[in-house]
Design goal:
This protein is α/β, with parallel strands linked by helices. The protein is 32% helix and 26% strand. Helix 3 links the parallel strand 3 and strand 4.
Length: 229
């Protein structure tokens, strides 16, 4: 797998959505055009975008609007916006200090299904967190990466919500690094009312260098998806 990686830095949510939508549509179009060529899978382009967003809440296509607990007026007061998206999952928050990853991968070329893809995304994040001293795991029946799933303080550190068409993916994951967790109090994160949210900063009790975190995370994603340089 050859990967085109780009760090978009801080970017408006809609602008990033439009950009990944273009890459997604271009990838699907190329796939349709090339699929009768015997070596098309080896020549497919795969993309991975990293970015941070200004304060924004996004609702997946299977989510409940009632999980946004504040009014439009209060959204403006806290300098946040809201978007109904075409990804899976419920409501989540994106904001400064959070790494949002958007993989545009052709799963057919990678010879994996959507469930395997989500599993591998989770695995790359679990491996990354382990490398910096944070034990994490999956929680049965949900997506994302969690901490202390068998204890009384189960908390999510990374949300995952994806869309796939013709086995090409978009949207992705949101990893809390130095995230202001107060913004999660205005929603039922991912639809849950009985589980918490955390960040790397909170777990390690110190602010993180987000550029270093991005490098380490990218390394683990490349390793899991067998990226060729």
């Amino acid at each position: 797998m050859y990967l085109n990686f780009k760090d978009l830095s801080t970017i408006n949510y809609k602008e990033a959505w439009d950009y990944q939508e273009k890459l997604f549509l271009d990838t699907v179009s190329l796939k349709v055009e090339m699929r009768n060529h015997s070596d098309y899978q080896k020549n497919m382009q795969h993309y991975l975008l990293f970015c941070e967003h200004p304060h924004v809440y996004t609702l997946g296509n299977s989510g409940e609007y009632s999980n946004l607990l504040i009014s439009d007026e209060f959204l403006k007061k806290i300098n946040a916006s809201f978007y109904k998206t075409n990804r899976g999952g419920d409501i989540t928050y994106h904001g400064p200090g959070q790494i949002v990853g958007y993989p545009i991968f052709d799963l057919e070329a990678l010879k994996i299904g959507i469930k395997d893809y989500i599993h591998l995304l989770e695995e790359s994040i679990i491996n990354f967190l382990k490398s910096i001293g944070i034990p994490s795991e999956r929680l049965h029946g949900t997506t994302g990466v969690w901490i202390d799933t068998k204890g009384k303080n189960t908390r999510k550190i990374c949300a995952i919500g994806v869309r796939a068409s013709r086995y090409v993916t978009m949207h992705g994951f949101a990893l809390n690094v130095n995230t202001n967790l107060d913004y999660f109090t205005y929603i039922n994160p991912c639809g849950f009312i009985d589980k918490g949210v955390t960040s790397i900063e909170k777990e390690l009790s110190c602010k993180q260098n987000i550029d270093e975190i991005k490098e380490l995370l990218l390394f683990e994603i490349k390793k899991i998806f067998l990226v060729n340089e």
